[in-house]
Every structure is written in C-alpha cells, then in structure tokens.
Write a structure and sequence with these properties.
Structural class: alpha+beta
Low-confidence stretches: none
Radius of gyration: 14 Å
Oligomer: single chain
CATH superfamily: endopeptidase domain like (from Nostoc punctiforme)
Shape: globular
CATH architecture: Alpha-Beta Complex
Length: 148
Amino acid sequence: MRLGFEKASNTLKGRVMRFGSGGDFIHCQFIFDQYDRISASAWDLYGIGFRTYDETVSDESLWEFLDFGNEKDEALYAWFRSHLGTPYDLAGLVTSFLVPWRKPQNPKMFCSEVCYHACQEALQLNLPQVNANYLSPQGLYNLIKNNG
C-alpha cells in the first residue's frame, strides 16, 4: 500500500489551500494497490471511507507516494473499515490551522488526522506523538519523512 500526498494546483484555490496547510501538500490518502487501487481517507462529502483511485487521483503529476509494501494491508484495511462513516471535520480543518480552539475529543476527522492515526495504530510506524487535530498533510509528510 502507498500513502499518497496531493500537491495543490497553481490556481487561486490551490494557493489558498497551500497557505492553509503550510506547504505543497493539501490532501493525503492510502492506496491499496493489492485491492484494485482502492483509496482510503476522509473526504468532505463522505467522511472516512473508500473511493476508487480514478475518483481521487485525476493527475498523478500532482501526487507524491510513499510505499509501505503490502505486509500490513489487511490491518490497515480493517482499521479503515472500523472507522467507516466517521464524519469529516470541515470546521475543524479550517479552524485548526487558523485558531487553536478545536476540542481533542471531537469525533470528526480530516484526511491528515485520519492518516496519522492509521499510521500509528494500524501500521505501527511509531511516529512522534503530536496533536493530530493540528496536523496538515504537509506536516504528516514531514513527520514520516523525518522519522522513517
């Protein structure tokens, strides 16, 4: 499986999202190559769930992928299934990068928060403990690259 990080496009929306995330990456998701390239993450309309690769990766040149092999595919897939339907936290996403008032017990999550918890709990990457409520896709990418 791979963890994909989407780069912002060079549009006004992309520049705003890049500013908000503190770097180039604006979204992250796992891709299960072994399972017909199904993607797992949190999306604004769906919450935590699965989508097809073609639905989520329209331009591969805007993505960077970190390969974790297939050894823990089943554990990660089961982790996502157990969290299926957890609502997306759009308000938390916006406020967490602007003002730090989001409550840690909030059950809603956004993509980098979900992927961080999946890395820790299912993949057991032993990343440094951080407050995932404030972790952007760029922050998660940096955490993995600097500790792996």
